[in-house]
Amino acid sequence: MSQETDPKVVDAVRAHPFFHGFDPAFVHEVCQHAREVRFEPDELLAKEGAPADVFYLILEGKVALEAGAADNPHLTVQTVGRDEVLGWSWLVAPHRWRFDARATKPVRAAALSAEVLRRTLASHPTWGYQFLIRFMPVLAERLENTRIQLLDLHAH
Amino acid sequence: MLTDADRPAPTPGHPFAPVPYRVRAVATETPDTTTIVIEPWGTRRIGRTQPGQFVMLYAFGIGESPIGVAGGHPDGQLVHTVRNAGKVTGALGRLTPGDTVGVRGPYGHGWPIGEAKGRDILIVAGGLGLPPLRPLVYELFARRESYGRVEIIYGARTPKDLVYYDEIQTWRRRNDLRLQVTVDAAGREWYGDVGVVTTRIPDARFETGRTTAFLCGPEIMMRMTAQALVARGLAPEAIWVSMERNMKCAVGFCGHCQFGPSFVCRDGPVLRYDRVQHLLSLREV
Q: Most exposed residue of A35, B151, B159, B269, measured as fewest CB within 10 angstroms of its CB?
């Protein structure tokens, strides 16, 4: 095992629902430079416009995704919690965060290196395809939820 | 030519004759939503209400509106939560203690709580869908040992749109109830969940084979929620929805509230999802 890989983080990543069933070799590969991170309430995990250089697996706590507008600079549009993932900006050019992500409760997360992930997915197409198949439902669900939000359920 | 003024007023006992009630207390829930507690004014009172039923509340001189029963007591008191959405509900929302209001009912079929004995209960409320579920919640509390797990998911547009806020905090302290509250959007003052009510379904703890779900809220919210529950494995027959239609006569006579082959006032408002799911996705029904 590489010295750049923390075995505790590998265990946490393997145990996370997002990575259930993946090839252990793939998990080991993407865990290079991964680290466990903690955030106190109100600390930012991601800042809109900043480089999206990590992919978070939330292990504990809750994170608010905030969209800024002139009349409401901190509008929370979604919360993400334990066993969920945070961030797709690392996968899509120009690899910059589209939202602020702020801890609303103490957060413990595994932060996977976006550079390692992109390199691994590109160099191992089978793993890359499996990863995208796993990732697409997350994106689709969030798109669906946004669509439901646009319907404004409570206005009817 | 006869006019409305020539028409004789309904006499007591007539199905359209309202029973006078007096407003005992008023509480502001949100800027446009009010809870009123009313009690019989005189010797007459309507029959005992069942969770999920509705009454017709008459703002004298203005008109009637169907309002779900948010609470009922053996002494005849009734609790109703009303959003100002028009002339009648606006007038009901402006009532003050001592005012009088007319009541007809109770009407319709409520939540089939007896059929759910021994099962896990999942309650999903959206916005003003919580008031018609409130009597059900207290019925469950009163007979808690007769049911398995109880979980409530409550969603509103923003934190300011949550009704019964203080009451919900007391529910949250119970250890025999799991409560999830979510809003569609919020500012930084809100530390709870944000996301439409369907986003909380994956986190709900229930066993599909032994759970009954009761849904109340805007129709589109119930449709989306029911679909999410079915996707998690809950049988459509185990899901009940409370429909809201333009009830006028409330006795299955006028047809204003027709919903497919049903009259919501007479056959509902609580209907089993598998019997109406094909209608929920149709427009203009």
A: A35
- Please name the member of A79, A102, A105 whose beta carbon is closest to the beta carbon of B195: A79
Separation between Cα atoms, residue A27 and residue B10, nearest integer Å:
76
Q: Are residues B237 and B268 located together in one domain of the fold?
A: yes
| First-residue to last-residue Cα distance in chain B | 36
Residue-range definition of the domain harbouring residue B143:
114-280
The verdict on residue A111 lying in a domain is yes
Chain A residues in contact with B192 by the CB 8 A cut-off are 79
| Residue A71, both tokens | 């009349």
Angle formed at CA B39 by CA B34 and CA B42, multiple of 5 degrees: 145
Q: Which of B65, B18, B68 is nearest to B44 (CA)?
A: B18
| Cβ <8 Å between B194 and A62 | no
Same domain, B207 and B158: yes
Side chain identity, residue A95: H
- Report the DSSP pairing between strands B211-216 and B239-242: parallel
Q: Which of A77, A104, A105 shows the shortest C-beta gap to B185?
A: A77
Q: What is the pLDDT of residues B31-67, one digit of tens each?
A: 999 999 999 998 899 999 999 999 999 999 999 999 9
**Backbone CA torsion sign across B136, B53, B111, B272:** negative
The alpha-carbon radius of gyration of chain A (Å, integer) is 16
Q: Report the distance separating Cα B234 and Cα B211, nearest Å.
A: 8
3-state helix, strand, coil in chain A (%, to 5): 40, 30, 30
Chain B nearest-CA residue for A101: B188
Nearest CA in chain A to B224: A148
* Inter-chain CB proximity A156 and B220 less than 8 Å: yes
Whose structure tokens read 């003050």?
A: B96
Query: How far apart, in Å, do the first and last CA atoms of chain A sit?
Result: 57
Asked if B283 is an interface residue toward chain A (Cβ–Cβ < 8 A), one would say no
ipTM exceeds 0.90, yes or no: no
Domain final residue, candidates B62, B84, B107: B107
Q: Do A76 and B190 touch (CB under 8 A)?
A: yes
B32 touches chain A (CB under 8 A): no
B219-231 and B273-280 helices, crossing angle to 10°: 120
**pLDDT tens-digit series, residues A19-54:** 999 999 999 999 999 999 999 999 999 999 999 999
